[in-house]
Amino acid sequence: MALLDGRALTKTYRLGKVDVHALRGVNVAVERGEYVAITGPSGSGKSTLMHILGCLDTPSGGAYVIDGEDVSRLSGKRLAQVRNRKVGFVFQTFNLMPRLSIEENVALPLKYRGGLSRHERRARARAVLDRLGLSDRLVHRPDELSGGQRQRVAIARALVGEPAILMADEPTGNLDSRAGATVLETFDELHRAGHTIVLVTHDPNVAARASRTIAIADGVAV
């Protein structure tokens, strides 16, 4: 069974008196250990698809199973629980808490999850930061780091909960070419280590790093 399995996914938004069909029956499957890029122009539906795959939203129609669990019709609270346990997110704008240290930022998802002591949360955060070459930045705050370093912190935060899948939405969009290349090399290393990665991008050079590409146009996989 695929790690992610979406069948005939649709998503319709109501804007005033107009229905906007963001997805029109998309089929998508991602196996464990794959590195998949979802590409398409602005407005194609790729971000909507990622929101559904990442349990940030539910489809209007179709079925979606992640790691053996059908999440198509879950309540918002239950969907958030699944997302916290199974998905790690990396965003274009980093989304780090400016007043927290790097270590505290990375440990934060574990605090929301519960079940671990503060000492255990900090130990896990330090371990993943060390893995990504950031062990000398534990007490720094986000504004004391470069853009590339902040994105690697965001990757560490996504990984700290040991999710089934890592999802990245335009992860190099706010970076210069050198920092972007470093971040993409980090994804390459994570893929080689066995992580499942789904990356959304409009940049063909970024998509080329993945082992497979799903192109979205007008709400349909093409």
What do these coordinates show?
- The chain has seven helices and ten strands.
- A hairpin with a 2-residue loop joins strand 9 and strand 10.
- Helices cover 35% and strands 27% of the residues.
- The radius of gyration is 17 Å and the shape is globular.
- The mean pLDDT is 93.
- The longest helix is centred in the C-terminal third of the chain and has 16 residues.
- It has 222 residues and is α/β, with parallel strands linked by helices.
Radius of gyration: 17 Å
Give me the number of helical elements.
Answer: 7
Please summarize the sheet with the most strands.
6 strands, mixed
Category by helix and strand content: alpha/beta
Taken as a percent bin, the fraction of beta residues is: 25-35%
The number of strands is 10
Order of helices and strands: EEEHEEHEHHHEHEHEE
Shape: globular
Which key features would you list for this structure?
alpha/beta, 222 residues, globular, single chain, six-stranded mixed beta sheet, four-stranded antiparallel beta sheet
Summarize the structure.
This protein has 222 residues and is of the alpha/beta class. The chain has helices at 46-53, 76-86, 102-113, 118-131, 147-159, 177-192, 204-207, and strands spanning 4-15, 18-30, 35-39, 61-66, 69-70, 87-91, 165-169, 197-201, 212-217, 220-221.
